[in-house]
Every structure is written in structure tokens, then in C-alpha cells.
């Protein structure tokens, strides 16, 4: 991989400084989510994350994020009912998924199936509040169904239909595992979704806003965000954390593993954050949820490995402000729920679609197309070279 660009470069004509990765550069104004990375505080629409995770539900939190206020009892009932009515996906989408290679990554399957929804619904009605409401409902309702469907299809089975008597999270776990989940497991999963629902201008949300700013349809917005979330520096890290815990194997190996990884300049997955200089507040809650899961459903020795890595990392990475992020403990909850490792990031997407849609609406409310500039570092003006006069092929 190429070296990251160094700072202190300025645009030749405007004099504006290049900030690689847009570090610290405000790229939009938003009223959706606030992060205090020094204190480890996270709020959605002004409500502390801890209060929402303790008292709300994923659908209620999604409503808050997208429409700005907590719903009334009637509004919530209407929203929950609408989502329930739109959980099914067309047989055409299921048949398309049957043509996907079973060995493909479920994030690629999700990105393709989310994009395919745009084929079914009109594209040019984004000014119509009913179109917006319907698109929000469809995406929140259908993404879990598509994630569960690909899981069964790749095992050679037919997807199972959603169950109308089950609430949002319980229904997803049922469609995935073909068993009605324990109510505590379903509640813990619902809390995980709330914790992952939104996080200001992270890479996938930025991607969603850039796509939204072209006035394309919301299915393309979500599909582009899913593709961005998949990368290992972003949502994809939750899958890699589990691989790391398995590789480390025992708590005693944690220190040596960290020393070796750092000497080889490898990043520790599930650690570090552009915004947080302390432990991610979501990781604190997720760790408590892991313990709640294990107290009820049995211990997992990989948790001891995770705790040892966090302890050993304190002296090695803590001085640089590098602590566990949201991806560090989530996989241990999902593993206990019977979710396969390569579905951890699709599960993240099930939650984050709420944040993406909130940003889609906000972007459309005061839209200007994203079109930043660049600092050109290529050749200066050159004379055309006829093919027979070219002496060397350009380096790969
Ligand atoms: C849902 C989410 O997206 S949460 C993040 C999930 N991603 C991960 O867990 C992957 C591991 N973490 C990382 O790659 C980074 O910390 C990111 C991508 C999250 C943030 O990246 P940035 O803000 O650009 O920080 P950057 O990568 O420049 O790192 C700054 C310094 O900290 C070090 N660092 C950052 N994260 C880590 C890590 N996980 N392990 C070891 N060192 C790290 C870098 O090597 C760099 O050191 P240097 O200054 O000596 O070169
Ligand atoms: O905010 C970020 O850059 C990444 C993150 O934690 C998230 O998207 O939840």
C-alpha cells in the first residue's frame, strides 16, 4: 500500500492546505450526532447514547435520528407497523441472490441487493415526503431480510419469510438462525443496533452524503455507503478482530502478539479512532453487553483474550490515545448469538442504515454537490508522442 500523503502541501492557486483524510476539516453542518472524543461522549439528536441504549429500541432510535424527535406512541406504532409490512423482498431479488457465488462476501451481496432495490421503485421523487418515508421504511425493513436471505441461500437453503409476530430484532435473528431467539438475546441485539446506528461523518456516512448530493436515489446512497463500510479500516474491522482473537488464542499470548504486530507496523484491529482519544463509549457499553450475554448463555474464552489485549495495549498504545473502538467487543456478542463472523459487518449495516438515511434527508434539506479540489502532482504540459517514438512503457 502507498505511503500516506504528508501534510503541509498547499493548493497552487488557492493556497489552501491539504489535509490528508480530511482530518479535522468540517465538510458539512449536521444536527444528527455529536461526539466529544476527549471525554468519550456520544449523543444522537442531543440524547446521550447510554440513555438510548438503556431505554429505547432500534426502531425508535432510527425514527429519532431520521426525523429529529422521539416519536409519540402513535407515530412509533405506525412506523413499526410500516416496517413490519415491508420486510419481505421480491422473489426477483431472492432469485438474483441465488446467482451470487456462495463463496462471495456477504457485504458484496448486500451492496448489490441494496442497489437492486432502486430497480423496483421510481427514482426521481426525492422531493416527495411520501416517497422519502416509503424509502426509509423499505430500506430499514428489507436490509435485514436480505442479509438473512443470503446466509440461507449460500448454505443451499431457501430463505425463510419474516414472522409478523416477532419484533424487528427478534425477527432478524429468527430469519438468520431459523430459531426464535431468547428474549434477552433479542434485546441485547437490539441494543447493539442502537449503538451502531449513527456516528457523525464517518467514512460510510460521508460516502452516503456525497452520493446523496448528486440527487440520486436513496438505494444508490445506501449501496455506496455499504461498500464503504465494508473496508477493514471501517466497519470491516469487527470481523478482523475475531480473527485476531482466535490467532492470539490465549490471554498469556496477548503482550507478545502486540509487540510483534507493532514491530511489524501492523495495526491492531478494533483499536484507534479519528475522533476518540479515550475508549469509545460504545465499546464500554458493548463490553457490558458481552458480560450480560455470557452471564446468561455461558462464557467464551475469547473474551479473556480480548480483555488481555486491552490491558496489554494500555501501556503500548494508550500514550498515543489509541483505545478500543466500537468494533472491538461487538463480535463477541454476535458470536454468542450464533451470527457467523463474515456477517458481523452486514449486521453493522443493518444498524447504520438509520444514520445514512438521516444524513440523506439532511443533505437534501440544504444540498450542494460535493466537489472538493485536489493538489495536482502529475506531469506538466507535454507534447503528444506518436506510438512508434515511445521508448519506454510507463511503469506499472
Ligand atoms: C466503525 C469504525 O470504523 S471504528 C474503526 C475501525 N477500524 C479499525 O479498528 C482498524 C484499526 N484502526 C485504524 O486503522 C485507525 O485507528 C483508524 C482508521 C480507525 C483511524 O485512522 P487515522 O485517524 O487516520 O489514524 P492513523 O491511521 O493515521 O494513525 C495515527 C497513528 O496511530 C497509529 N495507529 C492508529 N490506529 C492503530 C492501531 N489500531 N494499532 C496500532 N497503531 C495504530 C498509526 O500507526 C499512526 O502512528 P504513527 O503516527 O506513528 O504513524
Ligand atoms: O466515526 C468513525 O470514523 C468510525 C466509527 O466509529 C463509526 O462509523 O461508527
TrEMBL record:
BP-aspect Gene Ontology terms: carbohydrate metabolic process; tricarboxylic acid cycle
Organism: Parasynechococcus marenigrum (strain WH8102)
Any one Gene Ontology molecular-function term assigned to this protein's record: citrate synthase activity
InterPro entries: 2-MeCitrate/Citrate_synth_II, Citrate_synth-like_lrg_a-sub, Citrate_synth-like_sm_a-sub, Citrate_synthase, Citrate_synthase_bac-typ, Citrate_synthase_sf
Catalytic activity: oxaloacetate + acetyl-CoA + H2O = citrate + CoA + H(+)
Active site: 273, 327
The encoding gene: gltA
Pathway linked to the protein: Carbohydrate metabolism; tricarboxylic acid cycle
Family: Belongs to the citrate synthase family.
Pfam families referenced in this protein's UniProt entry, alphabetically: Citrate_synt
GO CC terms: cytosol
Keyword annotations from UniProtKB, A to Z: Acyltransferase, Transferase, Tricarboxylic acid cycle
Protein name (record): Citrate synthase
Amino acid at each position: 500500500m502507498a505511503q500516506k500523503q504528508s501534510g503541509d502541501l498547499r493548493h497552487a492557486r488557492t493556497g489552501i492546505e491539504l489535509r490528508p483524510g480530511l482530518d479535522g476539516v468540517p465538510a458539512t453542518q449536521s444536527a444528527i450526532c455529536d461526539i466529544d472524543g476527549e471525554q468519550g461522549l456520544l449523543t444522537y439528536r442531543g440524547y446521550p447514547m447510554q440513555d438510548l441504549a438503556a431505554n429505547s429500541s432500534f426502531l425508535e432510535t432510527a425514527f429519532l435520528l431520521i426525523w429529529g424527535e422521539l416519536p409519540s406512541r402513535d407515530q412509533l406504532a405506525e412506523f413499526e407497523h410500516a416496517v413490519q409490512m415491508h420486510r419481505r423482498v421480491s422473489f426477483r431479488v431472492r432469485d438474483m441472490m441465488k446467482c451470487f457465488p456462495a463463496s462471495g462476501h456477504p457485504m458484496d451481496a448486500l451492496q448489490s441487493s441494496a442497489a437492486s432495490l432502486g430497480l423496483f421503485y421510481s427514482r426521481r421523487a426525492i422531493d416527495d415526503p411520501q416517497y422519502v418515508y416509503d424509502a426509509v421504511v423499505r430500506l430499514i425493513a428489507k436490509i435485514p431480510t436480505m442479509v438473512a436471505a443470503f446466509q440461507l441461500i449460500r448454505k443451499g437453503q431457501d430463505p425463510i419469510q419474516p414472522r409478523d409476530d416477532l419484533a424487528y430484532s427478534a425477527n432478524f435473528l429468527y430469519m438468520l438462525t431459523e430459531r426464535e431467539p431468547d428474549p434477552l438475546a433479542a434485546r441485547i441485539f437490539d441494543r447493539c443496533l442502537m449503538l451502531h446506528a449513527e456516528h457523525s461523518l464517518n467514512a460510510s456516512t460521508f460516502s452516503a452524503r456525497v452520493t446523496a448530493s448528486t440527487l440520486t436515489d436513496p438505494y444508490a446512497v445506501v449501496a455506496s455507503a455499504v461498500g464503504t463500510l465494508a473496508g477493514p479500516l471501517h466497519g470491516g474491522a469487527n470481523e478482523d478482530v475475531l480473527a485476531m482473537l482466535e490467532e492470539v488464542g490465549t490471554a498469556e499470548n496477548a503482550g507478545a502478539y502486540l509487540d510483534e504486530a507493532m514491530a511489524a507496523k501492523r495495526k491492531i484491529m478494533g483499536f484507534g479512532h479519528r475522533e476518540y482519544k479515550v475508549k469509545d463509549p460504545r465499546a464500554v457499553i458493548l463490553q457490558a453487553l458481552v458480560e450480560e450475554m455470557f452471564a446468561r448463555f455461558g462464557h467464551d474464552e475469547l473474551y479473556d483474550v480480548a480483555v488481555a489485549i486491552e490491558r496489554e495495549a494500555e501501556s503500548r498504545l494508550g500514550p498515543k490515545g489509541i483505545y478500543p473502538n466500537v468494533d472491538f467487543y461487538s463480535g463477541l456478542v454476535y458470536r454468542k448469538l450464533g451470527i457467523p463472523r463474515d456477517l458481523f459487518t452486514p449486521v453493522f449495516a443493518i444498524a447504520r442504515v438509520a444514520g445514512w438515511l438521516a444524513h440523506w434527508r439532511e443533505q437534501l434539506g440544504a444540498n450542494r454537490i460535493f466537489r472538493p479540489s485536489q493538489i495536482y502532482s502529475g506531469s506538466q504540459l507535454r507534447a503528444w508522442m506518436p506510438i512508434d517514438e515511445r521508448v519506454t512503457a510507463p511503469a506499472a
